[in-house]
């Protein structure tokens, strides 16, 4: 298996030129360091070009920087949402660079993207409610071991201001992120900020991510996003068919894993380079599992046809931490250099403090078993003051390194989580 497969599977995801037609809510007026101007960074022409595919380039960067031979999972959605909080408080070229690295040209595009994700959450809640109702009304048609559909899909944002810093956050900025991203705003002193932020993240991720950092006492501002998903398979795997077997790791050795198995009609795609199967989940979520070297999976989804597929999938858990400047290095690789230097302009966020991004951390965790998937991501941007028919049964046996994607089931699927299991 080539190490860069996952860098190719997201080429048709949301980009600036496609999200504007999603029928989302109109974006709100943007905050500015000058109240007479809606967006100072757009008052003159800029030559900064938006990243054509944020999701693809992020996955590619992660794999090229230490994770190609490791189990991992990253959340493009959580990272992008945290960056939206930062972009909202930036101005001039600093704002332009952050937006371009995110794949956008304006805050209007950011807000349209965010609203599309929020719509998927609303759709999840609606579909889950319908599934619960159907289960209760037609329980006799379900199997004896069937469980009531259950789940949760939540995204949350918060901004934390250290009261021991030299200044405060702008009221206009707080109002803007509350209105557009439903962000909670908290003022807390340096002796309590670490516990407060970690406790908030632990609560929003249902305990999957209990801590993002062990010490944030010297940070002036923390911008946080969390994404949490718990949902069940539309066709649950039976514990009875789970057996232990060999999984061939990326280095060719074998380890024992518990494999779930069932044969059902699933959307399936295969070509000379590889294959994938789409497992539908309650709430309008799809889990896509990929073997081999299928290119442009987001495009190939429409070519997948319903086939009888014998699915063999290991139960697994993955925890990942991107806390060694990987995400800062990614932003710099995309041309966003100013946010990390003393020339950064976050004057929209605060007129009192000269802020600079000092760290970006993301932690993720996923559990996959017979009942379904539970996954969470937390991203924190730390800011300091800069004075620093009987068909042939297809076979999909994931007993070797494979990739996975958890997508919203929408016209423009949002990659909530992406990762791989290789050992």
Could you characterize what this model shows?
The structure is a single chain. Helix 5 (171-181) links the parallel strand 2 (151-162) and strand 3. The protein has helices at residues 54-67, 76-89, 92-102, 107-137, 171-181, 193-204, 297-300, 326-333, and strands spanning 72-74, 151-162, 184-188, 221-232, 243-248, 254-270, 274-281, 285-292, 305-314, 316-322, 355-368, 372-385, 394-397, 402-408, 415-421. It has two domains: 41-119 and 149-230 and 317-385, Antithrombin, Chain I, domain 2; 233-316 and 391-421, Alpha-1-antitrypsin, domain 1 (Roll). The protein is of the alpha+beta class. The radius of gyration is 22 Å and the shape is globular. Strands 1, 5, 6, 7, 8, 9, 13, 14 and 15 form a nine-stranded mixed β-sheet that branches. Strands 3-2-4-12-11-10 form a six-stranded mixed β-sheet, sandwiched between helices. The chain has eight helices and 15 strands. Helix content is 25%, strand content 32%.
List the domain count as a whole number: 2
Structural shape: globular
**CATH homologous superfamily identity of the largest domain:** Antithrombin, subunit I, domain 2
Please report the total strand number as a whole number.
15
Radius of gyration: 22 Å
Note the total helix count.
Answer: 8
GO molecular function: serine-type endopeptidase inhibitor activity
InterPro entries: Serpin_dom (IPR023796), Serpin_fam (IPR000215), Serpin_sf (IPR036186), Serpin_sf_1 (IPR042178), Serpin_sf_2 (IPR042185)
Biased composition (Polar residues): 44-53
Domain Serpin: 55-423
């Amino acid at each position: 298996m080539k190490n860069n497969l996952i860098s190719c599977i997201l080429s048709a995801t949301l980009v600036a030129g496609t999200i504007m037609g999603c029928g989302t809510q109109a974006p709100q007026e943007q905050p500015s360091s000058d109240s007479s101007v809606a967006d100072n960074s757009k008052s003159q022409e800029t030559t900064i070009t938006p990243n054509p595919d944020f999701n693809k380039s992020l996955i590619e960067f992660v794999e090229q920087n230490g994770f190609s031979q490791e189990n991992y999972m990253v959340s493009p959605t959580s990272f992008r949402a945290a960056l939206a909080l930062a972009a909202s408080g930036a101005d001039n070229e600093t704002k332009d660079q952050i937006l371009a690295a995110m794949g956008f040209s304006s805050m209007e595009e950011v807000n349209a993207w965010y609203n599309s994700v929020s719509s998927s959450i609303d759709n999840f809640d609606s579909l889950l409610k319908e599934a619960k109702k159907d289960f209760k009304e037609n329980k006799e048609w379900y199997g004896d071991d069937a469980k009531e559909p259950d789940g949760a899909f939540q995204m949350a944002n918060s901004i934390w201001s250290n009261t021991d810093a030299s200044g405060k956050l702008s009221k206009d900025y707080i109002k803007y992120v509350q209105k557009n991203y439903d962000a909670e705003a908290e003022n807390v002193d340096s002796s309590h900020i670490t516990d407060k932020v970690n406790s908030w993240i632990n609560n929003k991720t249902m305990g999957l991510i209990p801590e993002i950092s062990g010490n944030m006492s010297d940070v002036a501002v923390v911008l946080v996003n969390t994404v949490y998903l718990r949902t069940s398979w539309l066709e649950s795997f039976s514990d009875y068919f789970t057996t232990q077997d060999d999984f061939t790791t990326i280095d060719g050795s074998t380890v024992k894993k518990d494999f779930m198995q069932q044969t059902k009609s699933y959307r399936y795609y295969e070509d000379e380079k590889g294959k994938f199967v789409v497992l539908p989940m309650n709430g309008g979520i799809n889990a896509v599992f990929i073997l081999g070297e299928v290119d442009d999976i987001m495009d190939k989804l429409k070519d997948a046809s319903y086939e009888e597929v014998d699915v063999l999938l290991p139960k697994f858990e993955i925890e990942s931490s991107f806390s060694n400047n990987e995400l800062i290095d990614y932003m710099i690789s995309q041309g966003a250099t100013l946010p990390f230097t003393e020339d950064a302009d976050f004057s929209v966020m605060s007129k009192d403090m000269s802020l600079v991004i000092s760290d970006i951390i993301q932690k993720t965790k996923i559990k996959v078993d017979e009942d379904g998937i539970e996954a969470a991501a937390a991203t924190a941007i730390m800011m300091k003051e800069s004075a620093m028919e009987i068909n042939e049964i297809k076979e999909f046996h994931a007993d070797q390194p494979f990739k996975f994607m958890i997508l919203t089931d929408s016209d423009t699927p949002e990659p909530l989580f992406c990762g791989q299991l290789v050992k």
